[in-house]
Amino acid sequence: IMWSHRDPAFRKSGVGNIFIKNLDKDIDNEALHDTFSQFGMILSCKVATDATGQSKGYGFVHFETEEGANLAIEKVNGMQLADKVVYVGPFLKRLDRGASDSKFTNVFVKNLAEDVDDAALMKLAE
Question: pTM of the full predicted structure?
Answer without folding.
Answer: 0.68
